[in-house]
Amino acid sequence: MATLQSSWAPEPLDLTESLNDEVWTGSYENQMEIPGGFLWAKNDAEFLYMAVDFVEDTQNDPGTGDYFWLTFDTNRNRAITPNSDINYGVYPNQPNKMGKQLYLGPGRWTGLLNTPSDSACRYDFGASPNSTTPHRIWKLKLDLSELNVSLATWWYLPYTFFGLRIHSSAPNLNYDTPANFYTSFSNLHRIQFSRKPTIAQSLQGPEIGSVGLIPATQIDTTTGRATTASTYYVKTNNHAFGGTLNLIGNRLKMQAVSDMAGSQYYRVLHREGTSGSFENFTSGWTNYRLVDTNYIPVNIAPNSDGYYFLYNPSSYDFSIDDLLMQFDSRLLATGLHQFQVEFYSYGSGTYSKVSNAIQTLTLYIDNNVPQVSIDAIMHGSQQVNACGIVNLNGNTTGGIKVKFDAYDGEGNLLSYNVYAKYGEGHTQSLRSATHADSGIALWQGANNLEAPSSGVYIPPVTCAYSFNVVAHARTTNGYGQIGHNSASRFITILK
């Protein structure tokens, strides 16, 4: 087993860009040698970008049976979990079209899944820093949510396990790394993700620089909701906050305070709403400090006086740098909350305030998930109960109508999707909607909806069907979307 270290991608990578371009800087330095070539990796908060630098394949013959397999152990248990672990690969004779399938067991998979995905691949042929002789290169963009990877997991450094096959028909090459990875996950390689981006100083708040990866300047001072640019690491559009939140300090401010004589401390202050007095706000968490080549857990909590020790940013390398506080926002009521930070020096038994707080960070906290339900499945005027059987008797115009709810009282609905699932992972979408398309700042969704919105759903084959409603909250923990709810109902349909 080997470890591939992913470096941070400061902007989304375009798969058309050459491995010699500056955007891949950092991945070559951390590359992993594999049979036949090298493997590169970068990531941002949304995607893993990988490059397979297949230097041994020097024949430019895409579409002749050349392909790759890329397997991920999505629950990181080093065992094949049916209908969970993923294998990516290219469509036959279509080198720029990537599909995915789920494992059913050792060496067994579902068919290619017909589900929307932002993951993609691109074939290239040319030189790279590893070889000036033109050769095959695969470049991939993989959605972290598909891999079940989150950069906000504070209890461990984000990672996953993977295996890779690269195949060439001419020359005749076939490499699996590790060997037989598709029959046993016990020796899969590890990929370690980066969560250390650099946020431009101009975007940071003067004391609380950001919440996770979202700069404080991108959080509305009145509504407490975040809106970032479409090209930013974390895409938000009037998002509320929820889950475990990291308040990241402004490094220049923290460094300036740390450089003062004596030991330095700070307090985090909080109030619910936007009026009244601020009170000392405390929490405890674990961060990981780099010592030699290992990350050592460091338990962080306020001292008996309610103050936190300020670690010098230039002297300590943590897995989450400049972390002022981590707290569980689920302990707070839904609505507006405000935070401040005060810095102190300590000497002769006395805490002396370095300066008064000059920043008030306002956050709208909402940990409620959308309300979803399947109210009825209708076949004509007949309601079909769970586990019911519908006989269409060859009727090509009769079908199914799903009545459902997808509603968020706080107006923080991101999207909903209604779909039918049958057979070995086949999926058909019946109706969907998004906040971006609604044109409403605080989109609640609705109750008493129907899918499809017009007409009926005609099932393609006789099978057991599950009808599903999934709704996602427009809520972020500073690293990505969090919060969803779902409902499903199973029936059998005879064509």
What do you see in this structure?
The strands form seven sheets. Strands 1, 6, 7, 8, 9, 12, 13 and 14 form an eight-stranded mixed beta sheet that branches. Strands 17, 18, 31, 33, 34, 36 and 37 form a seven-stranded mixed beta sheet that branches. It is flat, with a radius of gyration of 26 Å. The model has no long low-confidence stretch (mean pLDDT 91). With 495 residues, it is an all-beta fold. The chain is 2% helix and 49% strand.
What profile does the largest beta sheet have? 8 strands, mixed
Low-confidence stretches: none
Q: What structural class is derived from the secondary structure elements?
A: mainly beta
- Which percent range describes the beta-strand content? over 45%
Number of beta-strand segments: 37
The helix tally amounts to: 2
Global outline: flat
Query: What is the overall pLDDT average?
Result: 91
Rg, alpha carbons: 26 Å
Report the span from N to C terminus.
50 Å
Q: What is the helix content? A: under 10%
